[in-house]
Amino acid sequence: MKTPQEIAEMISRRFYPLPDEDLDSLASIIESSKAAKGELILGNGQIAKYLYYVESGLLRQFYYKHRRDITEHFSCEDNIAICITSTFRGEPTRLLIEALEPTVYHRISFSELNDLLKTSLAINRLYQKILEWALIVSQEKADSWRFESVRERYQRFQQEYPEAARRASVNHIASYLLMTPESLSRVRAGVL
Fold first, then answer.
1. Residue of 131, 154, 43, 150 whose CA lies nearest to 94
2. pLDDT tens digits for 133-162?
3. Which of 25, 33, 42, 32 is nearest to 82 (CA)?
4. 42, 93 in Cβ contact below 8 A?
């Protein structure tokens, strides 16, 4: 497991370069943890209070609709999971986070991050970049559902999430792409 300082540096490299002083401040609010396969990191009805950074493993964000679970997002190494609506509004979430395999993750408290945002322009910029990334991912997924065929959606998924495409179950991938596992199998076989 990497140290909070190393994780702060990794987040900084990925989203926005922070000066050393701000790296230290960010590292001071990072909590490290592990989750077993199948463990819920964020459950239904809880209020999301953290941003999660994945060091190793695979997380899935999902929700229930008509008694079926629908995958919303996958997060693997050097990726972030965030429940934006619950966090910003302080409302219970319907978007759960589950470890699909043994996962090492690091969480950043939004309340502690908000305190840092009051004193650091660089951390503000980092946070802005993380939120921009999350919004772009969400918009691209919505556009994919609206405008692309099932084959195009699957090809995009393979290109943008190669690790999740390789490591997640067929059922989880199919639900992410809004298709049945049978349809996904036909797409993979070149029938659709």
1. 43
2. 999 999 999 999 899 999 999 999 999 999
3. 42
4. yes
Q: Is the dihedral of CA 117, 118, 120, 125 positive or negative?
A: positive
- For 49-103, what is each residue's pLDDT tens digit? 999 999 999 999 999 999 999 999 999 999 999 999 999 999 999 999 999 999 9
Domains of the chain: 4-119 (2.60.120.10)
**Residue 177, token pair as written in the block:** 């792409």
Q: What is the rounded CA–CA span in Å between residue 17 and residue 23?
A: 9
Compute and round to an integer the Cα radius of gyration of the chain: 17
What is the rounded distance in angstroms from the CA atom of residue 156 to the CA atom of residue 175? 15
84 vs 70: CA distance, rounded Å: 17
Please write the tens of the pLDDT for every residue from 123-133.
999 999 999 99
103 is written with which tokens? 């996962």
Q: Nearest Cα to 25, choosing from 106, 90, 117, 93?
A: 117
Closest listed residue to residue 56, CA positions, set 6, 109, 17: 6
Q: What are the residues whose beta carbons fall under 8 Å from the beta carbon of 77, sequence distance 6 or more?
A: 54, 55, 56, 57, 163
SS3 content of the chain, % helix, strand, coil (to 5): 50, 25, 25
